[in-house]
Design brief:
about 130 residues; globular
């Protein structure tokens, strides 16, 4: 994939926010259950690519944070700004860890979807904050 990094960067610059909104929208109830793992995979891959393009940065990429915040607030009424901030921090921290945290990130995204749909309380996020 390294040889296509430039093309990937260009496409993400053009369509990244729309893809992020589509993934989080699908996870929050806008897609059939069978597609949820694919949305999680796609979003984690985007996050990991963006974060890995700025190695050593203490703060997550501001463009990524903007996309995530916009998508989280657009997709549900059950996600408050505080919850959205927690979800962004959890996801960015997991993406910084690389592929070893992929499964945990996918579980966090699935849990976000449950919160967004009102199927789980926000306490479910505590497990990700404690590790």
């Amino acid at each position: 994939l390294a040889q296509f990094a430039g093309a990937i960067d260009n496409l993400l610059a053009q369509h990244g926010e729309v893809i992020t909104k589509a993934c989080l929208g699908g996870l929050s109830g806008g897609a059939p259950q069978i597609l949820l793992p694919s949305y999680s995979e796609c979003l984690f891959s985007i996050m990991q690519h963006i974060i890995s393009s700025t190695p050593g940065a203490d703060e997550p990429n501001s463009v990524l944070c903007t996309w995530l915040r916009s998508a989280l607030m657009a997709n549900t009424q059950n996600i408050t700004p505080e919850i959205g901030t927690s979800v962004i921090k959890i996801l960015c921290d997991l993406a910084k860890e690389g592929t070893k945290s992929k499964q945990k990130a996918k579980m966090a995204l699935m849990d976000y979807g449950k919160i967004a749909k009102g199927e789980a309380s926000t306490d479910i996020l505590l497990a990700y904050s404690m590790t």
